[in-house]
Design a protein that fits this description.
The chain is of the alpha/beta class. 31% of the residues lie in helices and 22% in strands. It folds into 2 domains: 484 residues, ANL, N-terminal domain (Rossmann fold, 3-Layer(aba) Sandwich); 131 residues, ANL, C-terminal domain (GMP Synthetase, Chain A, domain 3). The structure holds adenosine-5'-triphosphate (ATP) and magnesium ion.
Length: 655
């Protein structure tokens, strides 16, 4: 944040006038269709959340809904519950007992279906296994795994015995794993021999071994046999144990530990788009209530639905909307292990057709890839089962939204653009699909009970039609409670910019009708001759051009203008770059936004640098454009991309 001192607010607004009212057929069957829910929740947010909490199982009811002394929140004070009990046991006395809880498809095409009863049994066995390894309440357990059912089983087993888990995305390197294990001071690591990815094997155990050489707190390592390419000699005697051997003789029941509502459920590190990842701390009661209610209402979840959130569980989206949210609701959650283009670029659509997926929740980065590949892939499949689509992770360009709505949703499915963060635990800004009239590119309105505002430098609400900083004025149940091991960073990062108000770090605008439009990170704002341009708006203007698949805009120091716009552009398949196209794209931005936003430079590139969670890393592009040493690159998906861009940018600057 210190990088730019904000003087004015973001003041360029992109014109987007398309509107999509909820289709009558959708409204008819929607879980919520009465807009009074907003008023009710805002009149008494605590009562609103308490009502959602009452639908869950509490060993002991809370004494007080909220204890708030900014920046410290405690929800459901005095209440006792267990997350695994709520995700499993609660359903076993109902018709859900033999319903599919998890449907898993591996990349090679293998399938596994676990009913609620199955999942309960596997969770109990592994929980007993963890106990045997010496894991007790409060001990941290690190999970470094592919997208396989054992990952969900391990999370729920930890929750069952009160051991906070810390999941590290399986695509991270040994060093990234080591740092996260050491930060969490974990006692046990759970990993796998490997996972399947684009036909090859990701060498998880090898990376884990490398990391564990420098992880003094780890006592035991449990290894799932997934790929089968390692023998017993790959286990380090005394430290390592195969998962299947550990659970083999465990009892089928394990009591669910009654946890205080404010006991820690998990730690999770942010994506690192803006800098060093932060270890967010999430607790039990509030988090579960938040993910339960948002899953039910935003995704309009029905008993017979198959819900597919494509996020890896290594990210918060996977925690909340592959595992905890759907399972707390007794839903069927689908997990897929591999990449969308293996063996072909229609893999996801084949999965939608095969399992008759009803709700699909994914990220703009994936949607833009599909757009680039073309409509022919989804067109090969019958996707008529889809009823609702969602996106999360980055602002979605209106063009990508409209494409998603049409090419994937067949024009009949509402698209919920959901804004939230690792820190927030669950969705905070999103349409309610049975109520909200959608505008492509807008996350629309705060969820009931959430007080989101757009403010200027002084923390004053901006008038309709203006932009500023997105803040949250009131605590919400799933919010992070602190940053693990660094309480001061928690206060500085989120609660110091505007005292008593949560600072999201994102820029936003609110239009005349009160819709919220996310404009990307405040750090990413570009200042050209005193005008504040949002990267999102320039990128959307570029993606609006028929030749462009993806774009990243950044500001580069300029002697006269302060900053000049530089754009990195990926073209659609079969489109060739040329000086004429470059000129056309610049003109297109001028036409959509104005001369002030005209890029000085456009660099065509086959790939943009992204985090492992698929977000464009503009800070590295700024470093490249300014010829600086690259900042923290540990969360980068493919370091080769920045290296080649750096080289090319240097050459072009010299030429
Ligand atoms: P770090 O905080 O480490 O820099 P990060 O912010 O990318 O990483 P996440 O918590 O994974 O880590 O991402 C949350 C951010 O993603 C939000 O602050 C916002 O910038 C962006 N985001 C998420 N959903 C949306 C959305 N629907 N529209 C716009 N932006 C979104
Ligand atoms: Mg962030």
């Amino acid at each position: 944040m210190a990088q730019h001192q904000e003087q004015h607010t973001i003041d360029v607004l992109l014109e987007e006038t398309r509107k999509y009212p909820p289709p009558p057929a959708f409204v008819q069957q929607a879980n919520v269709k009465d807009p009074a829910i907003y008023e009710e929740a805002n009149r008494d947010p605590e009562q609103f959340w308490a009502r959602a909490a009452e639908e869950l199982h509490w060993f002991k009811r809370w004494d007080k809904v909220l204890e708030w002394q900014a920046p410290s929140a405690q929800w459901f004070v005095g209440g006792k519950l267990n997350v695994a009990y709520n995700c499993l046991d609660r359903h076993l006395a109902t018709a859900r007992k033999n319903k599919a809880a998890l449907i898993f498809e591996g990349e090679p095409g293998d399938e596994r279906v676990l009913t609620y009863q199955d999942l309960h049994r596997e969770v109990c066995r592994f929980a007993n296994g963890l106990k045997q390894l010496g894991v007790g309440k409060g001990d941290r357990v690190n999970l470094y795994m592919p997208m396989i059912p054992e990952l969900v089983i391990a999370m729920l087993a930890c929750a069952r015995i009160g051991a906070p888990h810390s999941v590290v995305f399986g695509g991270f390197s040994a060093d990234a794993l080591r740092d996260r294990i050491n930060d969490a001071q974990a006692k046990v690591l759970v990993t796998a021999d490997g996972g399947w990815r684009r036909g090859g094997i990701t060498q998880l155990k090898r990376a884990a071994d490398e990391a564990l050489r420098q992880c003094p707190t780890i006592e035991k390592c449990v290894v799932v046999k997934r790929t089968g390419h390692l023998g017993n000699d790959a286990l380090q005697p005394g430290r390592d144990v195969w998962w299947h051997e550990l659970v083999q003789s465990q009892p089928l029941e394990c009591p669910a530990e009654p946890m205080e509502a404010e006991d820690v459920l998990y730690l999770l590190y942010t994506s690192g788009s803006t800098g060093k990842p932060k270890g967010t701390v999430h607790t039990t009661g509030g988090y579960l209530v938040g993910v339960y209610a948002t899953t039910k209402w935003i995704f309009d979840l029905k008993e017979e639905d198959t819900f597919w959130c494509t996020a890896d569980i290594g990210w918060v989206t996977g925690h909340s909307y592959v595992a905890y949210g759907p399972l707390a609701n007794g839903a069927t959650s689908l997990m897929y292990e591999g990449t969308p283009d293996y063996p072909q670029r229609d893999r996801w659509w084949a999965i939608v057709e095969k399992y008759r997926v009803n709700i699909l929740y994914t990220a703009p980065t994936a949607i833009r890839s599909f757009m680039r590949w073309g409509e022919e892939y989804p067109m090969r499949h019958d996707m008529s089962s889809l009823r609702l689509l969602g996106t999360v992770g980055e602002p979605i360009n209106p063009e990508a939204w409209v494409w998603y709505h049409k090419a994937i949703g067949g024009g009949r499915c509402p698209v919920v653009d959901t804004w939230w963060q690792t820190e927030t635990g669950h969705i905070l800004i999103s349409p309610l699909p049975g109520i909200t009239e959608l505008k492509p590119g807008s996350a629309t309105f705060a969820f009931p009970g959430i007080d989101a505002d757009v403010v200027d430098d002084q923390g004053r609400s901006v008038p309709p039609g203006s932009g500023g900083y997105l803040v949250l004025r009131r605590p919400w149940p799933g919010m992070l409670r602190t940053i693990y091991g660094d309480p001061q960073r928690y206060v500085n990062q989120y609660w110091s910019r505007f005292p008593g108000v949560y600072f999201t770090g994102d820029g936003a605008k609110r239009d005349e009708e009160g819709y919220i439009w996310l404009l990307g990170r405040v750090d990413d704002v570009i200042k050209v001759s005193g005008h504040r341009l949002s990267t999102m708006e320039i990128e959307s203007a570029l993606v609006d051009h028929p030749s462009v698949a993806e774009a990243a805009a950044i500001g580069k120091g300029h002697q006269v203008k302060g900053e000049a716009v530089v754009a990195f552009v990926t073209l659609k398949e079969h489109i060739q770059s040329s000086p004429l196209l470059e000129e056309n794209l610049k003109q297109h931005v001028v036409h959509k936004i104005g001369a002030i936003a005209r890029p000085d430079d456009i660099l065509f590139t086959a790939e943009l640098p992204k985090t492992r969670s698929g977000k464009i890393m503009r800070r590295l592009l700024r470093d490249i454009a300014e010829g600086r040493v690259l900042g923290d690159t540990t969360t980068l998906a493919d370091p080769g991309v920045v290296q080649s861009l750096k080289q090319r940018y240097g050459e072009e600057a010299e030429a």
